[in-house]
Design a protein that fits this description.
Distance between the termini: 8 Å
Strand order of the largest sheet: 1-2-3-4-5
Oligomer: single chain
Strand content: 25-35%
Structural class: alpha+beta
Shape: globular
Length: 188
Amino acid sequence: MPELRTERLLLRRWRESDLEPWAAMNADPEVREHLGELLTREQSDAAVAVMQAEFDERGFGWWALEARETGEFIGRVGLDEVDEDMPFTGVDIGWRLMRSAWGHGYATEAALVCLAFGFETLGLPELVASTTAKNLRSQAVMRRIGMNRDPADDFEDPSVTEGPLRRCVLYRIPRREAHGLHHERWVT
């Protein structure tokens, strides 16, 4: 698993020490507001095991996100294959940060280096990102990293029952439009 670095962030392999703050993050109602039910410690631990296995298998996936200055785990960021039941295909870029890490530009900074990895290392033709229609913070990050939304692509998430999390928006960025976006180089 390659490590990616920016001026302030380290995108790295998951560590045992990440499990507790990751579980706390997944039990935080504000963090989970646009994601659904809170997760138990066991569910959070199982998710890390799956993320690690998928990364090892595919060569991309979800990195643990660390603030370089403090060494603190602050969330996850990465690339994932779109689930088969979704009404679109491709590779999705996403992020989830602890509340204490919100508002510092970390999601944008980490997403830009993920875009570069996806396009320059993996050679992907396009990246997509989706979120609930009401998740304006994530949509702002999507726009800041150069993604665009066509309302015709908006969709109802088939994995969600009726309610405020069902209506979603889809953003896209083709590789040809990503050139010139500011990003740091990564190291392995």
